[in-house]
UniProtKB/TrEMBL annotation:
It catalyses: dCTP + 2 H2O = dUMP + NH4(+) + diphosphate. The lineage of its organism: Archaea, Methanobacteriati, Methanobacteriota, Methanomada group, Methanococci. This is dCTP deaminase, dUMP-forming. GO terms for biological process: dUMP biosynthetic process; dUTP biosynthetic process. Homotrimer.
């Protein structure tokens, strides 16, 4: 069962679902809009070796970023041109990890799904790849996998970037996501890189 706007207000008011900060204007008929935070991660490894900790750098911005498609052939000259013309804080090429401003806590009988906004899809920008599922019992901010597919796109801090759709389980999970010892992203307060290297290694 998907929660309606009435259900979302009820769950938030009773603190069965935590959304901080919570903006009532962001409640839709059956979803809640989340906004883009100011912290990002870009990887700097030549190859993603998933059995090793990946190299990356964290970036904090004040206003906006420009995301270029993969193989855009971004040069230093183009980067400086974009920064000067569009007054953006940072220019990326390829995928970049972001985060929501919102910190959420789900009870063990509620799961959620993150979906990018259709308005961003119409300019061929995605804010999640395959990781839109949020398990019951999750506590933390949502990491976003942002990719532009057509041409450069400017994104602004605090703009609505996607939405959460909440569903009620037939029965609560015995062990919620953040209660599991194997959960790698519980209680994350900022954008997090892939921690797949912490999985049990193959024999």
């Amino acid at each position: 069962m998907i929660l309606s706007d009435k259900d979302i207000f009820d769950y938030v008011k009773s603190k069965r679902i935590i959304i901080e900060p919570f903006n009532p204007d962001n409640v839709g008929p059956c979803s809640y809009d989340v906004t883009l935070g100011d912290e990002f991660i870009v990887y700097n490894d030549e190859v993603y070796d998933l059995e090793k900790e990946l190299g990356y750098k964290r970036i904090k911005i004040k206003n906006s970023i420009l995301v270029c498609p993969l193989n855009y052939n971004l040069t230093e000259e183009k980067e400086e041109y974009f920064k000067e013309k569009y007054n953006v804080d940072y220019v990326f090429e390829g995928g970049v990890l972001g985060t929501t401003n919102e910190y959420i806590e789900l009870p063990n009988d509620i799961c959620a799904q993150y979906q990018g906004r259709s308005s961003l899809g119409r300019v061929f920008l995605t804010s999640h790849q395959t990781a839109g599922w949020i398990d019951a019992g999750f506590k933390g901010k949502i990491t976003l996998e942002i990719v532009a597919f057509d041409r450069p796109v400017i994104l602004y801090v605090n703009q609505r970037i996607g939405q959460l759709i909440f569903s009620k389980l037939l029965s609560p999970a015995d062990i919620g996501y953040s209660e599991r010892k194997s959960s790698k992203y519980a209680y994350q307060k900022t954008v997090m890189p892939s921690l797949i290297y912490k999985d049990k290694q193959r024999d």
